[in-house]
Write a structure and sequence with these properties.
With about 210 residues, this protein is an all-alpha fold. The chain contains eight helices and no strands. Helix 1 (about 1-20) packs antiparallel against helix 2, helix 2 runs antiparallel to helix 3 and helix 2 (about 25-40) runs parallel beside helix 8.
Length: about 210
């Protein structure tokens, strides 16, 4: 228990620190701060800690990617079209990674706990809603990437007269941060619900035994 808690706590602190340094939007540090608070709430439940760890790992990678793109890659790229491909493509990759980690949570549990904890293999009530919310994140990232291609079809060999009709298609570009923040914050809320349900259920089971 203590090792998983320490790992999750350190990863959430890392995510918060990286998100603050990367300075992508105001939502990332807020999300990571809430995630850190969840780790404290879930300190006695390895099942919830594991789910929280999955999000902390992906958010840490996201902050690293944002920092790399803003400070290393983007300064040498002179095309917003190419920049957006890297940005949205990276976001899509991380959302798919998050979906993959949630889907194969049992395998992750074996690797992290070495099979020494039975509670990590129990069903968590937050898993279903979390899976749907992460699917929403994947959809938003995919649509933002496709919109970038649609808005820049002249780079794909389409005549400029045809391509310019779509130059003003910027819905996902304009609202991307807000569209991503809603399902992410709902994920945090569902993680909290999962923690509450499990911590309230445990004493009842103990009494029955």
């Amino acid at each position: 228990m203590r090792s998983l808690f320490s790992l999750t706590l350190l990863t959430s602190v890392l995510a918060l620190a990286l998100a603050s340094v990367a300075q992508a939007t105001v939502f990332e540090p807020i999300t990571c701060a809430l995630l850190f608070i969840l780790v404290v709430f879930a300190r006695d439940d390895e099942n919830s800690l594991l789910l929280t760890l999955v999000f902390a790992v992906v958010l840490s990678l996201d902050a690293l990617m944002v920092f790399y793109l803003k400070n290393i890659l983007f300064p040498i790229i002179e095309s917003f079209y190419i920049e957006n491909i890297f940005a949205y493509g990276g976001q899509l990759t991380l959302s798919i990674l998050l979906l993959f980690l949630l889907k194969y949570r049992m395998a992750v549990a074996v690797l992290v706990t070495r099979g020494k904890s039975a509670s990590v293999f129990e069903k968590n009530h937050a898993e279903g809603p979390l899976y749907l919310l992460v699917l929403t994140l994947v959809f938003i990232d995919f649509m933002a990437l496709m919109e970038n291609f649609l808005r820049n079809m002249e780079h794909l060999g389409v005549k400029e007269e045809t391509a310019k009709v779509f130059w003003e298609v910027t819905f996902f570009y304009d609202y991307f941060a807000y569209l991503k923040s809603v399902p992410l914050l709902l994920c945090i809320a569902m993680l909290y619900v999962g923690i509450v349900v499990r911590t309230r259920r445990t004493p009842i089971q103990a009494d029955e035994n």
